[in-house]
Design a protein that fits this description.
CATH superfamily: PEBP-like
Order of helices and strands: EEEEEHEEEHEHE
Strand content: 25-35%
Largest sheet: 5 strands, antiparallel
Distance between the termini: 38 Å
CATH architecture: Alpha-Beta Complex
Strand order of the largest sheet: 8-6-5-9-10
CATH class: Alpha Beta
Number of domains: 1
Oligomer: single chain
Number of helices: 3
Number of strands: 10
């Protein structure tokens, strides 16, 4: 299985998918989500789940990764740019903007793509997609640990895509 994205050029996500973009929610969080395509998935795949995260955030959060997007019950192999905001055909979990580490946004405001805003240097972002033999019994606003538990025993394959996003200078 492989993941590709038309939103990556020269190893970097395009500006519009994060703090250098133009689409933000009322709290100032970037909301224009990354596009991606899943290739060579197992033929018996029923649905996909994905998590988009930043391990370079450890330095900023003092020990925690930053979860930018979780999604489940995706039935297609193509996710268009800004799908998170445009009537997605999948369910979305909360991102780290929901946590006490940040402004503790509501579930409704954070159960979507919360874009890249690296404050200290360019960060590497990871998209991990899972091919599953079922759909997951989750509700919108789920937590990553709930998705992980629901996937146990149902993962047929997985793939990772990584790229960087340039530092946001205030």
């Amino acid at each position: 299985m492989q993941i590709i994205s038309s939103g990556i050029h020269h190893g970097y996500f395009d500006d519009l998918y994060g703090s250098h973009g133009t689409q933000f929610n009322a709290e100032g969080v970037p909301t224009y989500s990354i596009p991606f395509d899943i290739q060579d998935a197992p033929s018996d795949t029923v649905s996909y789940a994905a998590v988009f995260y930043d391990l370079d955030a450890y330095e900023v959060t003092q020990g925690f990764p930053w979860i930018h997007w979780t999604l489940a019950n995706l039935k297609t192999t193509t996710v268009a740019a800004n799908a998170s905001q445009q009537a997605p055909d999948f369910i979305q979990g909360v991102n780290t903007w929901h946590s006490p580490q940040t402004d503790h946004l509501s579930t409704e405001a954070s159960a979507c793509y919360g874009g890249m805003t690296p404050p200290n240097r360019d960060h590497t972002y990871t998209l991990k997609v899972f091919a599953l033999d079922t759909t997951l019994d989750l509700q919108p606003g789920f937590y990553l640990n709930q998705m992980t538990a629901a996937m146990r025993g149902h993962i047929l394959d997985s793939a990772v895509l990584e790229a960087q996003y340039r530092q946001f200078k205030h």
